[in-house]
């Protein structure tokens, strides 16, 4: 699916004569089914999340603003997924030309970075709202700071993605393929690009997410306004899901980079296992597009109430519908003491249970 995987294929066959034809059909079927599941479920989830939360974008605080950006990032990856599904089905043959070869890989890389950045910043924002309510928000509702910071994260993601994408190109040998092939100092480039992706996409965001979630769990345990102590475990699930989605991929990629540096490190049998594992863990990493909407939205009572209210608002209005719609909107947009609502919101462990 990725240029790294295509390059791993080339490197593998350069120094290992082992053939993988016997497992090829099973690999294609398994990966296609994984991609199909992620595409169908992820598309529905992220469209719903954006549809519901977009209606609250002007009054939402920084946490919900980050959720919108994460969902947008995941949705964009979902949209280009059919190109990679067909590529896998045809044995890494790319039929859509050089332009789409570069664009689809650029889009994938940009959104891999941006999704991690906004998840990390959202967790930090949540921690500050719980422990230091007077601290200025990263994404304030008013002013230019929200859009400057948001644009800065997307620009940083684009810059990091372009460092790799300039080396991605369409090569036509026996069959056309989309490959990451640096023209000069290939091993140095592979190591540098892999290191940058590891640090900026995984290690840095993971450190922020895990640290802040541990601190959030401690703060929630001692918060006098929290009624549901059983929800404390949810903040640890946030960290666990992020690590489970991305750690296997980065670990296998790290081993592949080691083999690029010195071909004598692993035997050909080991490389065969790594080669197959790389495709599997890369496809599994896309499960964050399915997990994020569930964790940060559908587990939230606030989001579920707004989802029901949004659906009801699209139905023909009558007396019963108006009464029901008003009732479901109360948790987020109803009357009452704003200070009390914010206090209860800050005590919640759900990332999207924020006052609107």
From TrEMBL:
Polar residues compositional bias, start-end: 344-356
For this protein, the record's Pfam families field holds: 7tm_1
GO CC terms, sorted: plasma membrane
Name the source organism.
Pagothenia borchgrevinki (Bald rockcod)
Please list the GO terms describing molecular function.
G protein-coupled receptor activity
Lineage, broadest ranks: Eukaryota, Metazoa, Chordata, Craniata, Vertebrata
Q: Where is this region: Disordered?
A: 320-356
Where, per UniProt, does this protein localize? Cell membrane
Q: Where is the G-protein coupled receptors family 1 profile domain?
A: 45-296
| Organism superkingdom | Eukaryota
Q: What is this protein called?
A: G-protein coupled receptors family 1 profile domain-containing protein
TM region positions: 29-51, 63-86, 189-216, 237-258, 273-295
Q: How does it sit in the membrane?
A: Multi-pass membrane protein
